[in-house]
């Protein structure tokens, strides 16, 4: 099962890069004639500048997280996937359940920054705005006060912030979500967003909406529900260990 997870997450990572770069290069060759497009998309015709801006934002994010004391990778090593949100190892590896909330962030940012603004902006400028919000959030959520807030109100009391690597891939996940929303119809984006929230709510008893609610104005009923889920996971894990010991005997 572990190998399947690694293959799945590696594939998702490759899709992230493929979507992002294919759309950027497509914009260079053909700027769409839509209400939100100018006759010439500066970023699409100046790809090196576009890339420099993206790399600069991600580099800035990395430097600030290092200054905040976040590790480059987990002290135990680096894994492609980590599925236990109640472990201190959560948010320390390349991907975890919360990676999907960052993809949802990208789906939402596409519609907030691209179709809605008046006067309209190009999709590449909209993407940079979305990336700025992702970088800003990655920095904010790794400050000591926000980490402590998550411990008190979130689904995981063991949360210790993101590793630099995890944070980097969170921003890539946002990028993937943005360009995915660009390439599919609005109803596809809506369906994916709802599916993500429902699946995470069922599997880990947390998702983007619950995350925001609990960090801003925590509800005891939600905290208790999440805590019961944690106890169920812990109990299941203990039972599996005991079962394994009995089989060894």
From TrEMBL:
Record's signal peptide: 1-26
Species the sequence originates in:
Folsomia candida (Springtail)
Q: Does this entry carry the keyword Nucleus?
A: no
- InterPro entries found in the cross-reference section: DUF2585
Q: Which GO terms describe its cellular component?
A: plasma membrane
Q: What is this protein called?
A: DUF2585 family protein
Cross-referenced Pfam families, in alphabetical order? DUF2585
Give the superkingdom in one word: Eukaryota
Keywords from the UniProt entry: Cell membrane, Membrane, Signal, Transmembrane, Transmembrane helix
TM annotation in the entry: 50-73
């Amino acid at each position: 099962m572990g190998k399947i997870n690694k293959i799945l997450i590696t594939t998702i990572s490759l899709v992230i890069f493929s979507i992002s770069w294919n759309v950027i290069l497509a914009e260079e060759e053909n700027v769409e004639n839509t209400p939100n497009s100018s006759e010439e998309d500066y970023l699409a015709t100046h790809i090196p500048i576009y890339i420099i801006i993206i790399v600069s934002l991600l580099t800035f994010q990395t430097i600030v997280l290092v200054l905040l004391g976040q590790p480059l990778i987990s002290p135990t090593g680096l894994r492609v996937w980590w599925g236990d949100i109640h472990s201190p190892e959560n948010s320390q590896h390349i991907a975890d359940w919360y990676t999907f909330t960052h993809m949802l962030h990208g789906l939402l940012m596409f519609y907030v920054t691209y179709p809605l603004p008046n006067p309209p902006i190009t999709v590449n400028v909209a993407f940079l705005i979305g990336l700025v919000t992702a970088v800003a959030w990655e920095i904010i959520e790794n400050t000591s006060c926000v980490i402590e807030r998550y411990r008190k109100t979130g689904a995981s009391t063991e949360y210790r912030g993101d590793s630099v690597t995890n944070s980097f891939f969170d921003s890539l996940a946002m990028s993937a979500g943005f360009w995915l929303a660009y390439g599919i119809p609005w109803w596809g984006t809506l369906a994916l967003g709802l599916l993500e929230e429902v699946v995470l709510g069922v599997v880990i008893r947390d998702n983007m909406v619950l995350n925001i609610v609990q960090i801003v104005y925590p509800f005891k009923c939600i905290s208790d529900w999440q805590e019961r889920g944690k106890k169920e996971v812990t109990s299941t894990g203990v039972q599996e260990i005991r079962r394994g010991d009995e089989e060894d005997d």
